[in-house]
């Protein structure tokens, strides 16, 4: 009887120590779920979800502190992915735009720009180039199309324009659509 | 072999035993349509359209003006940036004429998109610049020498892909051991290479020899399909005649099967080396180029001719008189098709390339490119009904790359692009064999093309997303870092102030001698004086009057006298307040001006010096940097103003020092309590205090950044004209020091007057001990 207790106590201590050691040794830095969610978010950094960027939203989701359907640029697709990762019920997008619009990038009318640097401060990805009292311009390649710079411009010189299609980014149409068109 | 060939004519299946690679098809070739006709003379088109954008790389930059007259072979556009990186090849004029426009025109591209093109109106004279590339005609000895000529000549792969040839050639000699010549023109209808081999075999062979010589290749293999006997003969003849120090072109007949002319398939056929999926032939020591490219190399190297024309097949079932013709690059398709006498009006789209791999152009006016080998006019046939896949596996058997077309189709139509990619869709050469054999008439290649562009877009988006994430995180980190830096600066300044306090108290013992320490001296003085005042209040009795006191009094008097000189006569009591306000405003404005100047200067310096985005951002993103000096200056000015107001009030009510904490207040009290001092002198002392405050504000702004000092010195009023230091920073420091001394002196005098005792010395000694 006493031997059994001792043996099990010993085992309990050994495994307890092992587990304790393992939890220290193989500690995962950060929140893996937040990372995974962050991966599926569109990284537009637009703040439409109510968080100051995609990562804070991902972190809030991982903690279970926010709804799964807040990322508007991501749309239903991202919402479903989020609910899969978090294991929560998918929820209808409430504020989804009528139809997903093609990606747009900001464009600064360089004749109107007064060089107020307001848009630079707003841009989450540093995609605007300029300096005080100097004309500003958008690095189109880096613009995520978050539209945050549009309202801050005091002279309304920023507009969102669809990306120009060139022979470089042109896509072959899908065969069905070809047939329907005919 | 012969037996097999005879067998193959009877039994199409036997075709597969004639070649090494898997699959392939034997379509209706229709080559005799154009091959039976002799090469026609070049047609002079009504206009030439030269797209700045080549099939590969970035667009070239035009160097001619609209309206300029150009000669044949003249350079029209070239790479603006480093051409080796951006894969830009120059564009030359195919004939003499006038540049009519540089405007967007429809490109011969499946999208039908428009892009900038140079439009040249030929004058019909065909005046040429001879040896436009200025070569000496000798064979280049190194790969680099050859590459330079090829780049200047604007030679790109003329077989189809249009990859710039100079970029394809490795720069180290000896890396290529086998040079391959692609004379296997496998697409139906196309005979331009056939005709080129028949008529210019020597140029091809010479071009191959030049290339092999420059690259140090040991062997030259030329593969020609068996359905071009005339070409094989001509090439054999030329190869025999042009043997070059142990180097000769070996002509090999290869089976007539589609797609024999594809690079990997022909390489396998000629050398028995099957190329791995991701590898390039160059990595395996082999380099394959089209016969037309070799001919162009020959013309560039020995005649200095840039690539401005090529042989084009104009054929198709819709044409009465198909032909081959050396065509100027830029000739509109429709003019060539019209020259071949179309059976019915050309109201259907022409095809660029062959029936298997070509595409319909959106506009028949599109120009011939360096890669255009065929213009096909096949009247539209009723599209075959597409049926569901019956999983017959015919596509799999036909695929020359050993892919699984049916699987790829399945996933592509389900939009499971990751699975399509896993099935190696990027190895698909879009040869069209699978679509050709499919009994259900599924446009398989279309699915693969779509899937490829989808996958590319998805990849690009992923990259953009990753980039956006990184940049966002970088921005957050930067803001964080700047905040920390600002705090650190603030802390450092506080430290400096503390040290100053210590220094100041020791310096107070010898006020006439300028103190050496510089930073934030006025602030230090104020703080010190405040503390002294406190101690003076608490320690009413103090033992001895040090000689320093006398000196301090003198210094204070000197300061007030200087200030008085500056100040106009004002009525003692009434204007005090107004004067104080004025100076406050002055000080504020000066400080702000200085800060603004500083900010501007910094911004300018950064903009001009550093175009790197993040730095630029930093300068432009002034929330951190700009407000710093401004805020400091403003704060200083405001503080000074507050003190001054306090001062004036106290002066009015003749308050004693006990309640006050400000050195200036004390200074005024001091002047007020010393009986001899008239009201005007009081005013002067106040002015001196204000000047001190102003300078303090400026000094603080100056301490922020080095470049500010210049702006500062410009903004500074000539309060102290006695010291004209060459270095503005030095001048500012001297001023600060003087102000400090004055403040200290005032504090000392004040204390003495208020207590009528020796408090000041005691305070200073206490200060230095603390
Ligand atoms: S709404 Fe979506 S894209 Fe915008 S910041 Fe939030 S998670 Fe990012
Ligand atoms: S440029 Fe404007 S739209 Fe584009 S990422 Fe920056 S703030 Fe958003
Ligand atoms: S188009 Fe692609 S999949 Fe079809 S046969 Fe050719 S290589 Fe194979
Ligand atoms: S050839 Fe056509 S029908 Fe046959 S398996 Fe391939 S795709 Fe399906």
CATH architect. name of the domain at 32-98 in chain A: Orthogonal Bundle
- Biggest sheet descriptor of chain B: 5 strands, mixed
Record the strand order, biggest sheet of chain A: 1-4
CATH class of the domain at 32-98 in chain A: Mainly Alpha
Q: What oligomeric state best describes the polypeptide chains here? A: heterodimer
The count of helical stretches of chain B stands at 26
Helix content of chain B: 40-55%
Rg of chain B over CA atoms, rounded to whole Å, is: 44 Å
Average residue pLDDT of chain A: 81
Q: What's the order of the H and E elements of chain A?
A: HHHHEHEEHEH
Structural category of chain A: mainly alpha
**Computed structural class of chain B:** alpha/beta
Cα distance, first to last residue of chain B? Answer: 109 Å
Q: Which stretches of chain A are low in confidence, meaning pLDDT under 50 for 5 or more residues running?
A: 177-182
Main β-sheet of chain A: number of strands, strand sense, barrel status? Answer: 2 strands, antiparallel
> What distance separates the N and C termini of chain A?
87 Å
Report the count of strand segments of chain A.
Answer: 4
Strand-residue proportion of chain A: 5-15%
Helix content of chain A: 25-40%
